[in-house]
Design a protein that fits this description.
Radius of gyration: 21 Å
Keywords: Acyltransferase, Membrane, Transferase, Transmembrane, Transmembrane helix
Helix content: 25-40%
Protein name: N-acetyltransferase domain-containing protein
InterPro entries: Acyl_CoA_acyltransferase (IPR016181), GNAT_dom (IPR000182)
Strand content: 25-35%
Number of strands: 12
Shape: globular
GO molecular function, one term: acyltransferase activity, transferring groups other than amino-acyl groups
Distance between the termini: 16 Å
CATH topology of the largest domain: Aminopeptidase
Strand order of the largest sheet: 1-2-3-4-5-12-6-11-10-9-8-7
């Protein structure tokens, strides 16, 4: 099939009346990779509070990223979408890109990607994305200048009632406590130390992300309250120094729990015990799935998860496209209207992890 005439293709920010179609495309494209209940819940909340939250997107990073969804239309009909978020002032993350099945095989996904590269080049943004290792789109990204930097492994575990019974006093971690407001600087330093050396220039999270304003904290509390989510944050302290963190994000309606663990290299031997602590903290939930991701940078992490019954379900490539490469390809795509260029450029001042790509 041939690509529709450029005059009939437009890309613009999502509007309220697009959300139903967005849910259909999103669920169809990512239903096997992301819990469909989470997708529907998220879009339902956007729809429910659209006119309340949209005006606040100019002052909240989380809300800016929430509404950074772009719809691609062919002859006025929704043909696909992409969602981006921002790590910092110089890097954007491509969260999702999906094409309606009726428009696949026509090169539309490539055009959307090139338009993203064009917009990023104009504003000197690096682009980061993750793509499943078995997704043919991996080769498209390589042709467009993306370079694979690391592999990310996704693990799942069904909650079992008998798992907490393994947690005894010998498993308790000394120095394990709830996170408090004064921990943010040490946690940021731990993030820098725990990140694989190769990724230091790629995943550049800003320090303010670890010390959010009261307004940002209030918005996050409101988001979790309205979506029925529960967030738990803990630190592991040794000799007065934070050497590890545990974060649990529970999506109660979807019966899904996300576990994130961070440890400095000298205390990697405690990883299994931190995982076991997480299972104990989730002991009250009788059903659902616990998910986590790790970098493939050593077998110890994999062994710790597998010993506790976690199963590797997916592998992703973390891909990176530096800003200085972007001008080399943008000239090939001038087929979109000025409104599209303006839409992507309006987010120049937007700054902000779960990404699954499918073309």
């Amino acid at each position: 099939m041939t690509l529709p005439s450029p005059q009939n293709i437009s890309i613009e920010k999502v509007r309220y009346h697009d959300l139903n179609e967005l849910e259909k495309i999103f669920t169809g494209a990512f239903g096997e990779e992301v819990d469909a209940a989470i997708i529907r819940q998220r879009i339902h909340r956007i729809r429910q509070f659209y006119f309340v939250l949209l005006p606040l997107s100019s002052v909240s990073l989380w809300l800016k990223n929430l509404f950074s969804i772009y719809i691609c239309r062919v002859e006025g009909k929704v043909a696909g979408f992409m969602q981006v978020s921002f790590f910092n002032r110089g890097q954007l993350h491509l969260d999702y890109i999906a094409i309606n099945k009726h428009y696949r095989g026509q090169g539309l996904g490539t055009l959307i990607l090139r338009k993203l590269i064009d917009g990023a080049a104009r504003n000197n943004y690096d682009i980061i994305l993750e793509v499943r290792s078995d997704n043919p789109a991996y080769y498209l990204y390589k042709r467009l200048g993306f370079i694979s930097q690391a592999q990310i492994l996704h693990y799942d575990k069904d909650i079992e009632r008998n798992v907490p019974a393994r947690f005894t006093t010998k498993h308790r971690l000394g120095g394990f406590r709830k996170r408090n407001n004064n921990d943010w600087r040490q946690i940021y330093e731990l993030y820098l130390k725990s990140l694989p050396l190769k990724l230091h220039q790629i995943a550049r999270r800003e320090i303010r992300e670890y010390n959010p304003s009261l307004f940002t904290k209030s918005l996050e509390w409101f988001k979790n309250y309205m979506m029925g989510n529960v967030k738990q944050q803990y630190v592991l302290e040794k000799h007065g120094k934070i050497v590890g963190t545990l974060e649990l994000q529970s999506y109660l309606k979807a019966h899904s729990h996300i576990m994130n663990v961070m440890l400095d290299h000298e205390h990697e031997y405690l990883r299994e015990r931190v995982y076991l602590q997480a299972l104990y903290l989730l002991r009250t939930y009788k059903r659902g799935t616990i998910s986590t991701t790790i970098y493939r940078d050593g077998v110890e992490k994999q062994q710790a998860l597998e010993k506790l019954g976690f199963i590797e379900t997916e592998a992703y490539y973390l891909m990176f496209r530096p800003a200085h490469l972007q001008n080399k390809v943008v000239e090939s795509d001038r087929c979109f209207n000025d409104h599209t260029n303006k839409s992507l450029s309006q987010n120049r001042n937007m700054h902000n992890y779960d990404c699954r790509l499918k073309s």
